[in-house]
Amino acid sequence: MGKLYKFLKYSFITIWTVFVVAPFLWALTTSFKDFNSVNGGATYIPWVDFEPKLEGWKVLIKSPANGGVDIIEPYFNSLFVTCTASLISIVLGTLSAYALSRFTFKAGFVKNNDITFFFISQRIMPPIVLSIPFFLFLGAIDLLDSLIGLIVVYIVLLMPIAVWIMVDFFNKVPREIDETALIDGCNPYQAFFKVVLPNSIPGLIVAGMFCIIFGWIDFFFAFILTFTEVQLLPVKIVALNSSITPWWSLSASALVSVAPLIVVAFIVERYLSKGNLSGAIK
Amino acid sequence: MNFKHKYVFLFPGLFVLIGILIFPIIFVVRLSLSGWNSYNGLNFIGLENYIRLFTDDPRFWQSFFRLSFLSVTTVVLQYVIGFALAHMVWKDIKFQRFFRVLFLIPMMTTPVIMTVIWRTFFHESLGPVNDILSNFGMTPKWLTDPTLAKITVIIVEVWQWTPFMFLLLLAGLLSLPKEPFLAAAIDGASPVRKFIYVTFPLMAPISIGAIIIRLIEASKIMDTVYVLTSGGPGTSTETSSFYIFIKGLREFQMGYAASMSFTYLIIMIISLTFIAKGLTKLLLKD
Fold first, then answer.
1. Do B21 and A41 touch (CB under 8 A)?
2. Do B21 and A122 touch (CB under 8 A)?
3. Which one, A233, A258, B60, B177, has the greatest CB density within 10 A?
4. Residue B27 falls within a domain, yes or no?
């Protein structure tokens, strides 16, 4: 039994590892190819199957006039929109989550759980439902095709995630902490900022990571709400795909675009091992 | 603990969210009752759009069933694979951290950008998959055959989102109490029995949560389809979101698209509620 299980386990893990790594390896080799080594059929091993060229990577830093792909500006746009929207969502979401975790609210039949559900349920909303009114509204107030318009929309996407993770996290932070602080003469704001918040840093980091992931990977809203003035990274790469951009520069720019968030995988794993994620989904 | 200050904490977030959402949602409902396209204004036409949708638009319902099929299939696969992987790297494994990080990585990558890579990967004549398969005399049309295109979408979705399932389930496994496992070990239960009678029941609430979360996200499938097949060949990979997108923002029949998206939202809420209740009944027998 033990041996068979071990064999199955390691074979399954090996197969899955190959599956996970395959597209990355393919993109990496493709990014060093040129016309001949792409169009003659699939090639895999540099120097054996094909002669590696740096052309795919060089176009990343060239100006568009010289045939570059110009992903630097979209890169910073994406970074700016994601970080700003995440920050606003975390600040507002954390405050609301704290209120929902510590105080009792009652307005008619609406109670704490209903308010929490209202926040989280925004994730159920299919993006397409909101995209048409957002398109018309942002157009009406002249924020279509602007960074601010996107940030406003991304707050709707990200705040539910922040509230979801932080409510669970605050529920695990013992109430005695803030009660003691209040008895010691803090007002509720001091109790929150000086005592509760410093004890919630792991939760804040996890919530922040999730906001950044879901902000960075969004394509749909960026695709519908921006045109030429502002371009985010995913939209830019997809535009490259539909034009005649060769595979090597396409692969290089795709790899550069997905690289930064791989750091996030390490951070999430770290907090996972420490048990800080466990409360989040119950 | 009860303070006037509690509203100071709650309201900024709540009102920002409501403030951003309230007009769009009211507007969708109003728009769905009008014949708005690019030339005539917000003229009220009553339930005409809904009547058209329910009596005269098989394409919407086909896209909806296709979406149901795709999201249920991918989520089931993700759950089975995700659970298996989480269970395997839970304990007793070499290079534990390496595998955990590696299995998380796909969900950190932007779906559309990876789909661009997948498109080259599944390319019929120049991609590596068909290069390997051609040795066995097969050259499947991954992106242009109606059935295979669906499978390709499923493969890409499973690659992209199994890590999320894996993350939720591994977090759950790591939070389980130790006592039931000690008891099982003392009783000398085999690994299989331990899984069936201890691990799986303990994981049931977490499983339900994870499946619901993934179903919600999977029901939005659109990015991958847009890049991979653009709904094609024909309409064979077209999902609800994509069809609404075509009607509303390509053909600019905004009123009709609004009525479809409102219907779609209501169906989503109802069916997810039923699925949640059904799963709870199925997995939490006591």
1. no
2. yes
3. A233
4. no
Q: Which of B13, B100, B240 sits opposite A159 (nearest CB)?
A: B13
Q: Which residues of A touch B7 (CB under 8 A)?
A: 99
* B108 touching A (Cβ < 8 Å): yes
pTM, 2 dp: 0.89
Q: For residue B240, list chain A residues with Cβ-Cβ distance below 8 A.
A: 126, 128
Six token digits for residue A254: 């795709």
How many domains, chain B?
1
Secondary structure in 3-state letters for chain A: CHHHHHHHHHHHHHHHHHHHHHHHHHHHHHCCCCHHHHHCCCCCCECCCECCCCHHHHHHHCCHHHCCCCCHHHHHHHHHHHHHHHHHHHHHHHHHHHHHHHCCCEECCEEHHHHHHHHHHCCCCCHHHHHHHHHHHHHHCCCCCCHHHHHHHHHHHHHHHHHHHHHHHHHHCCHHHHHHHHHCCCCHHHHHHHHHHHHHHHHHHHHHHHHHHHHHCCCHHHHHHCCCCCCCHHHHHHHHHHCCCCHHHHHHHHHHHHCCCHHHHHHHHHHHHCCCCHHHHC
pLDDT in tens, chain A (282 residues): 578 888 888 899 999 999 999 999 999 988 888 877 777 777 777 777 777 888 778 888 777 766 677 788 888 999 999 999 999 999 999 999 998 888 888 877 888 888 888 888 888 888 888 888 888 888 888 888 889 999 999 999 899 999 988 988 888 888 888 888 888 888 888 888 888 888 888 889 989 999 999 999 888 898 888 888 888 888 888 888 776 678 888 888 889 888 888 888 888 888 877 665 554 444
Closest residue on chain B to A222 (Cα):
B223
| Domain carrying residue B203 | 33-283
ipTM score for this prediction: 0.87
The verdict on B249 touching A (C-beta cutoff 8 Å) is: yes
**Ordered domains of chain A (ranges, CATH):** 2-66 (no CATH), 72-281 (1.10.3720.10)
Q: Which two tokens stand for residue B67?
A: 């979406």
CA distance linking residue A24 with residue B155, whole number of Å: 15
Residue B74 within a domain: yes
**Does residue B193 sit at the A interface (CB-CB below 8 Å)?**
no
Let me know: does B132 contact A280? Beta carbons within 8 Å.
no
Q: Is B282 on the interface with A (CB under 8 A)?
A: no
Q: Taking a C-beta distance cutoff of 8 angstroms, is the pair B241, B62 a contact?
A: no
Nearest CA in chain B to A157: B17
Q: B9 in a domain, yes or no?
A: no
Who contacts A204 (Cβ-Cβ below 8 Å, separation ≥6)?
Answer: A90, A94, A166, A197
